[in-house]
Each structure stands twice: as structure tokens, then as C-alpha cells.
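seq as requested:
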Amino acid sequence: MAGLQTVALSVVAGRGARAEDEARSGWSHLLEHMVFKGAGGRSAREVVEVIEAEGGNINAATGYERTSFQVRALAGGLDLGSSVLSDLVQRPTMDAGDLNREKQVVGQEIAEAADAPDDLVFELAQTAAFDGQPLGRPILGTPQSIGTTTPQTLGAWRSHLYSPKTLVVSAAGAVDEDDLLRLAERDFGHTADDGVAPPLLGPAAFTGGQRAVAKPLEQANLVLLLPAVSVADEAYFALRLLAEILGGGMASRLFQEARENRGLAYAIDAYSETYADVGVLGVFAGCAAKDAVELAKVAAGEIAGMLKPAPEAELARAKAQLKGAMFMGREGALARAEQAAGQVLLFGRTLEPAEIAAQVDAVTPADLVRLTERILAPKKAAVAILGPKASLKAAPAFEQALFG
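C-alpha cells:
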């Protein structure tokens, strides 16, 4: 990326919490924490200090389908960053004392999420959408499931999760391709392959259901999910545009109807979440408990309204907004490195911006209608309501308004 004085390096494993069975729930996230406790002969403090001493920073994230380790550094920091990330992924210390302490830390993270309504309501919705499946379990796991780990069992899980068969090394910014290839060969080219295949991702199925939890809050929190398409489906960009039209910004249908016309909510938006073989269309809103049922009905009405062709001007605005968001995101070095790694894991190659733009522009109003029909055909929804008791009736009201 010409003109940048910094570089971003991502080492991404194409596995995450979705690879876990129920007994190992949360192990992938705990493992991501544990590798920072010491690796390659460096202590936990030294792992961080050696990067920060050169003006950089280091971080990591665990998702359902991948785990990412990231270094941002000044130009010339790629060599050190690659060395440190290689140690984290391949040579963590796994000390028993550190593990016991980190279990306590993650236990507090789990408790913090339970105390945050806008975290908990999404967790409830995810559980309802994919009940009894890895996608329906929280990425953090439970105190019970992470409590069973030992350095040995977590080390064995690391060899599965961060298998060389799943790793992508990606860099963007002030980086030379030859340098990256040389460092990848030096730090990852001789990774031991013990022949153990990484965990397979079993097929996911949207089950649907309701999770209504009474809690003495000032607001009712609503998450409404419907089954959608996967990231690899030909209707992927239609899904992104459908969510944009419904609730992608201040000109969106949900914002205009629920907030501007009726004053039901301060914040309301729609979004899509896609995985390798399944996806969801979601709506999130916060409102007064007395308005929850009406808001749920409004959301159902706007979704059903997508069964009619969207006006060309509205679709054109959604396309412009979607391309703007995607291409603005690419202007950050770390975002571009992460995006490229994700594309390689999913498609085996990177996608050029012109190719993405062409696919967005090719979506027609008829495509959106067909996708809406697909989304509504199963007559399934996952609805999570968290708030005062008076708001809980919004869950059945949404399904009744949408499916009759």
C-alpha cells in the first residue's frame, strides 16, 4: 500500500469455536489467551514488550470459524512480527499456573458478557438460532467447560486448531512481497505436520426458537434472526444489500419507519452474518418495554415488504453504501490483511475490488425478492428479548406478524 509507514501482519487459522464439541466449548478462545502467557522462550511480558519497544502492537481474536493473530508495526517491523507470531502459534509455553490464572480471567470475561445486555441478547439469539450446535454455543464457553482443560489437553487442541493445513500468513502496508515470502518460509515453512487433520466443521442448521428473559432494565433489547445464505452462496451480495435496505443507515426502511415515523426506538439496524454453509439476517433494536410488541410488528412488516421489488433508486443507494463500506475498510492495512486471509481461506484466492463491485452491481430487485422468499420459506425465526417482563410478548408477536 504505497505511502504507508506501517505494516500489518496477520496469521490466521481457519478454525475457531465452531470446531469445538460441547465438552471443549470455549477452548479455542482460552487457547488464544494462553499463547500470550509465554512462547518461544519469551515471558508474557516480553512477548508484548518486544513488539511495543519497536512502536508496534499485538493482538488476537477468536471467532466461530477462524482465529487471528495480528501485529501492527512501523515499516521494517515485519521480521520481528513474524518471529513473535510464529512462536505464539507454534511454540507456546503452556504453564499450569498460568492456565489456572487465565481460567479465572476468562471466567470474569464470561461474567462481564452476562452483565452486558447488548452482549447477552445476541448470545441468546445465537443459541436460539443454532440450538445444540457449535454455532449456538458462546465463543467464550462456560466456566465448567474451560475448567476441564490442562496444559496437555490444550496443547493437543492447539496442534489441531493451528495445524499448518489451516494457516494463512497475510501482510499489507509497507511490505515487500519477497520479504514476506522469505519470512513465511523461515518462520512457518518447517512447521511440523504431525498428520493430525484439523477438526472438521460439521454442517449447521438454523433451528429457530424464542429466548425471552425478564430482567429489570431501562430498555428492552430485541434481536430478531431469520435463516439466510452462506458466504459462498451466489446470493451473498443480495443478502448484504437486503440488510442495507432494511436497516443499514439513517435512510433505511427500519430507521425511517420505527424511529422517524413512529418514535419507537433510538437505535435500530439490520445486518447479515454469514458462515461457510449458513447465514442469518438479523435486526437489533432497543426500545421502551411498552413499545416492544409494536416494534417487533414493524420489523416483521418491513421484512415482509421486501417481497415486493425495491425501487431502483433505493437499490442504487444501498449498492453505493455497501461498496463504500467495503472499500473504505480496505484502506486500513490490518483490515486489508485480514480480508485477504479470509478470502484465501474461503475461496482459495484473493478477490479484486473490481470483481466485488461487479458482483454488487449485478444484483437486481428481482434477486432481492427471490432471496426474501428463500429467507421466509422455512417459517423459522430466532427471537431473543431481554428486558422488563412487559416486553417479552414481542417474541411471539414478531413470529405471528411475519408468518401468521
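Residues 76 and 291 are 56 Å apart (CA to CA).
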